[in-house]
Amino acid sequence: MSDAGIYRDSDVTITSTQLVYQNNYYPSHSIKSVVYFKEPLDVKGLVINAVLAIGALIAIFSLKAICAVVGLFALAVCGFNLYSFYRDSTNPTYVVAVTFHSNESLYMKRRSAEWARRVHDAIHDAMRR
User: Fold this and answer.
1) How many whole angstroms separate alpha carbon 8 and alpha carbon 24?
2) Cβ count near 7 (within 10 Å)
3) Is the pTM of this model over 0.70?
4) Closest by alpha carbon to 41, among 50, 32, 53, 33?
5) Which of 26, 48, 86, 102 could crosslink 19 through cysteines, CB 3.0-4.6 Å?
6) Domains of the chain: which residue ranges?
7) pLDDT by residue (tens digit) across 72-111?
């Protein structure tokens, strides 16, 4: 059996006999399954930050000094978190999950659907050889 490279990237190398991810070696024959999916958003965190941001706006407009200061701080934190949720929804993270026969799992993450599909297909090709 030749050890020809099927896929090679900066931190992922897939050959017919092994998967190399961040300088860790995994034999291809020990892979039980591989899937890729879009990482789900944290909806509960999104709702909590939105409610806190609305509460912060109410505190700012209450015209009390301490409420305004606390409200500005809370609005800044919640605004940053809401922006992070927006960024994650417009540019999602894709995960390639590899499960081994020893019930270990390996999760490789990138923000490219094309990368996830190519790695997924390359691992399937290595498993078939």
Assistant:
1) 14
2) 17
3) yes
4) 50
5) 26
6) 5-39+92-128, 43-90
7) 999 999 999 999 999 999 999 999 999 999 999 999 999 9
